[in-house]
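Homework help board

Subject: predicted structure for assignment chain

Our instructor gave us this sequence and asked us to write out the predicted structure in token form, then describe one feature. I got the tokens but I'm not sure how to describe them. Can anyone check?
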Amino acid sequence: MNNEVNAETGEVEVLEVIQPTAIESMTRAEIDIQIATAHRFPRSIAQFKKEATTMATYDEETAASCFYKLTRKSDDGTKFIEGPGIRLAEIVGSSWGNMRYGARIVSEDSTFITAQGVAHDLERNVSSTIEVRRRITYKNGNKYNPDMIAVTANAACAIALRNAIFKVVPKVFINSIYEAAKQVAIGDATTLIERRSKAVDHFKKMGVTQDRLLLTLGKKGIEDIDLNDLEIMTGIKTAIKDGDISVDEAFPTEEQRKSGTERLAGIVAQQPKTAETGEPVVKEQPKRGRPKKEETSPAAEESSTEPQEPRQKDADGLFPSDMQ
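My token output:
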């Protein structure tokens, strides 16, 4: 403890110096050593791209796990959102070098679980911390069982770690690796029939019927599935595996699509409509500000003013009020 005199009161204050714990000291020393090592052995971008591309395109299964696709409903139909997957993030983090990264669960309540992903580029001294929340309740509000919570926690940690790594490593160095992995995963026209059959069988084992699959892809038959559709199917498979989306969300049935459309139509139908166009009435919000002064016409002003009698002067030529 150290003593310090307060300049204003003159009293002696006792200040307690908090010493770092043994774990904090060890962690700080470990990071300092890693930073010094990173500066001694800087990375090579050419070597990084070579190693990452080799691992990402090692085989068809590895390449397929390097990207994902999510389905989203819109007025124009089904849209697909794609991006680099968790496996590609692990490959990039390993090949980038001079980097610390990890993920952990930071909070859990009755509804959500929160995971935190951290990535630290020791050579460039760039760090990123990302948090991801995942629901741990069923549609009826009941909480998941412990095993399902553990699965959800692992998926949340993986997603948080992926996002943190891709915040630190510039995307310009990842694009070529990403496209190479997609090319290996999808193949070309010579392998389309074989890989299309494998993809359809994969989703069939997951309980996805042919009608639901074709409905999501917007195709009439299996033979109409081309290389672009095979890319979508491969990305959805990775997204389901990584926990980004569920099977029902990726492949909704015709009834689920209609129920969502009917629900939206019911909300619109309840709004008041104009008699001329039949369109919903848009209520204007009152404008804020000082109220306007009502304007009156000159005729109204004349009618509201009563005529006054002329003032009479006395014998000296003065008005009576002037003498008061």
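Reply (TA_rk): Your tokens look well-formed. For the description, you could write something like this. The first helix runs from residue 22 to 40. That's the kind of observation they're looking for.
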